[in-house]
């Protein structure tokens, strides 16, 4: 009985390996070879930034008071195929921005003199979706902000 108990771990190891190999072979036989095909996604179209120019926007406090004005430099990220269309519709985009900024409180900081850039960026994206079309502008970048 002593020799059998010494060889038991070896038998268990060999038997476990054989059972695992048999299970793998059976699964491979039933399910077939794994497909080596990889579905290639269509490569994303290259994007570029279209300058929207300088935007003068009112800085309105949460109570509706005008705190001042700020000048923003903005660029819109679009696909290369949409560049000409966006450039042609920039006046409509700027109009949509103007129609939102005076009613959107974006004043922050002490004395409500600083613009909140997150709110302004959200305004830009809403205006772009309305005036240029949904999913045309991928991102709006505020590259400069200064008091006016």
Question: Which keywords apply here?
Answer:
single chain; 148 residues; alpha+beta; Tetrahydropterin Synthase, Chain A; two-stranded antiparallel ribbon
Q: How would you characterize the overall build of this protein?
A:
This protein has a three-stranded antiparallel sheet. The model has no long low-confidence stretch (mean pLDDT 86). The termini are far apart. 43% of the residues lie in helices and 29% in strands. The chain has a domain at 47-147: Tetrahydropterin Synthase, Chain A. By secondary structure, it is an alpha+beta fold. The chain contains four helices and five strands, in the order H-E-E-H-H-E-E-H-E.
Secondary structure topology:
Layout: H1 2-31, E1 47-60, E2 66-79, H2 83-88, H3 90-101, E3 107-108, E4 114-115, H4 117-132, E5 137-147
Antiparallel strand pairs: 1-2, 2-5, 3-4
Helix pairs in contact: 3-4
| Helix share bin | 40-55%
- What is the multimeric organization of the chains shown? single chain
**Largest sheet: spatial strand order:** 1-2-5
In CATH, the topology of the domain at 47-147 is named Tetrahydropterin Synthase, Chain A
Structural class by sheet pairing and helices: alpha+beta
Give the number of DSSP strands.
5
Classified by CATH, the class of the domain at 47-147 is Alpha Beta
Q: Give the termini separation.
A: 96 Å
Write a short abstract of this structure:
The protein has helices at 2-31, 83-88, 90-101, 117-132; strands spanning 47-60, 66-79, 107-108, 114-115, 137-147. Helix content is 43%, strand content 29%.
């Amino acid at each position: 009985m002593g020799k059998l108990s010494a060889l038991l771990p070896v038998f268990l190891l060999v038997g476990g390996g054989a059972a695992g190999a048999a299970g793998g072979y059976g699964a491979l036989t039933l399910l077939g070879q794994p497909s080596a095909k990889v579905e290639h996604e269509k490569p994303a179209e290259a994007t570029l930034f279209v300058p929207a120019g300088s935007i003068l926007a009112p800085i309105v406090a949460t109570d509706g008071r005008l705190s001042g004005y700020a000048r923003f430099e903005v660029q819109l990220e679009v696909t290369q195929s949409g560049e000409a269309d966006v450039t042609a519709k920039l006046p409509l985009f700027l109009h949509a921005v103007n129609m939102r900024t005076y009613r959107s409180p974006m004043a922050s900081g002490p004395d409500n003199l600083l613009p909140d850039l997150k709110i302004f960026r959200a305004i830009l994206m809403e205006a772009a979706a309305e005036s240029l079309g949904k999913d045309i502008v991928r991102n709006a970048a505020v590259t400069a902000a200064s008091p006016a």
